[in-house]
Specification:
This protein is of the alpha/beta class. About 45% of the residues lie in helices and about 15% in strands. Helix 1 (about 5-10) packs across helix 14 and helix 6 runs parallel beside helix 7 (about 125-135). The longest helix has 25 residues, at about 290-315. The protein binds pyridoxal-5'-phosphate. Pyridoxal-5'-phosphate binds near residues 99 and 124.
Length: about 400
């Protein structure tokens, strides 16, 4: 599907629909009059097949307790196998009401208060929250921006694990923000270090469906022919890929039977919620019918990225745009023409944009902002125009 067709068919106005992204600007940013290009959801309707499946269920009219049928697992396994070569068995799977919920469950289930947990900033800020909220010890191995490509210093990663006696690593793969798709070589180096120091790994792979060009996603349990699968707690979802996050459904995959037993034991005591019927119906329909839609969306994202990159390169040579190997959430580095502490005033006060600030993903990244490109091109154009116009006024 070409870009214009996708946009014409699926663009939808979200203001005044109780949208966190559009209708909580005053509360989150102190200014209701901003153009929102922050939080990771979209201005696009879900694939037709999802809307049809949900409509059918809604029209049925009875919303009693329900279970997740075997066909759901067949569909999910097909998606994982056809896209990533990962044949997921039903018995390894557990439903979750969201990826972030699963992070809290894992942390409670597999670690104790005071245990050290490592993450690799700049990284999705709920990773910091789950560690702090549950009184674990936060350990970081900051990534380095090598000319727009964020890379992990593996020596630093190992050193931080060793000196803090780290018990758990939260891997974000593909990585949000910064748009990195980890290569299998990089993943193997990380996982080998985790194995050497007996560190358990949560693999948050919610962005698995967004990779571009030669960059391919490798599910962590497949790395090195499955060598590390026994220490991996995988969680992914269709929610980022198909704009379903409000339906609260995600997939946990645990291959290791003993870790699964521990999880079930924990869940038996602490996770007593039923399933959200609409969440798993939408997910199944998305995996069954959403392929063409997803390809169309990815073309929109790449075109938006191309616009962002070329316009900024032409008008503001001091801005660096990170490479987009995956996700739809690139960072741009504004430190070439602004002091880090002035970025907020420029972006929010002058350009009137709501973005995710670099420092939300790690102290060292003040001066960067993260933009959400899964949107109508007119919003990306408007955001870039405002940045360029305000930049010219500064000069
Ligand atoms: C890396 C990552 N994990 C988890 C989430 C949120 O997942 P959920 O809405 O299922 O809690 C996001 C949303 O942007 C994300 O980027």
């Amino acid at each position: 599907m070409d870009i214009q067709t996708f946009v014409d068919r699926y663009y939808v106005e979200r203001k005044n629909t109780n949208s966190t992204k559009w209708d909580l600007l005053e509360e989150r940013f102190g200014d209701a009059d901003l153009l929102p290009i922050w939080v990771a959801d979209m201005e696009f309707k879900a694939p037709d097949g999802v809307i049809e499946a949900l409509t059918e269920r809604v029209q049925h009219g009875a919303y009693g307790y329900s279970f997740i049928p075997d066909t759901y697992y067949d569909t999910y396994s097909n998606w994982m196998e056809s896209r990533f070569g990962y044949k997921v068995e039903k018995e390894w799977c557990r439903p979750a009401t969201g990826v972030v919920s699963a992070l809290y469950w894992f942390m409670n289930c597999y670690t104790e208060e005071g245990d050290a947990v490592i993450i690799t900033p700049p990284v999705y800020y709920p990773f910091f929250n789950v560690i702090k909220d549950l009184d674990r010890k936060l350990v970081t191995a900051d990534m380095t921006d090598n000319d727009g490509r964020f890379e992990l210093d593996f020596d630093l990663f190992e050193q931080r694990i060793e000196e803090n006696d780290v018990k758990l690593f939260i891997l974000c793969s593909p990585h949000n923000p910064a748009g990195r798709v980890w290569t299998e070589v990089e993943l193997e180096r990380m996982l080998a270090i985790c194995e050497k120091h007996d560190v358990l790994v949560i693999a948050d792979e919610i962005h698995q469906d967004f990779t571009y060009g030669e960059h391919a996603h490798t599910p962590a349990p497949l790395v090195a022919d499955g060598k590390y699968a026994d220490r991996i707690l995988l969680v992914n979802a269709a929610s980022k890929s198909f704009n379903l996050p409000g339906l609260l459904h995600a997939n946990i995959v645990i291959q290791n039977a003993e870790l699964r037993r521990q999880f079930d034991n924990y869940a038996g005591q602490h996770i007593k919620s039923e399933k959200n019927i609409l969440g798993h119906i939408a997910t199944q329909a998305a995996y069954e019918t959403g392929e063409e839609w997803l390809d169309g969306l990815k073309s929109v994202i790449l075109s938006n990225f191309d616009y962002l990159k070329t316009q900024l390169a032409e008008h503001i040579p001091e801005v660096k745009v990170c490479k987009l190997e995956g996700t739809y959430l690139p960072m741009i580095d504004l430190r070439g023409f602004l002091a880090p502490e002035d970025v907020k005033d420029f972006i929010q006060g002058k350009c009137k944009l709501a973005v995710d600030y670099g420092e939300w993903f790690g102290d060292a990244y003040q001066g960067y902002v993260r933009l959400n490109l899964a949107t109508h091109p007119k919003f990306v154009e408007e955001a870039v125009n405002r940045i360029v116009t305000e930049y010219k006024k500064l000069k």
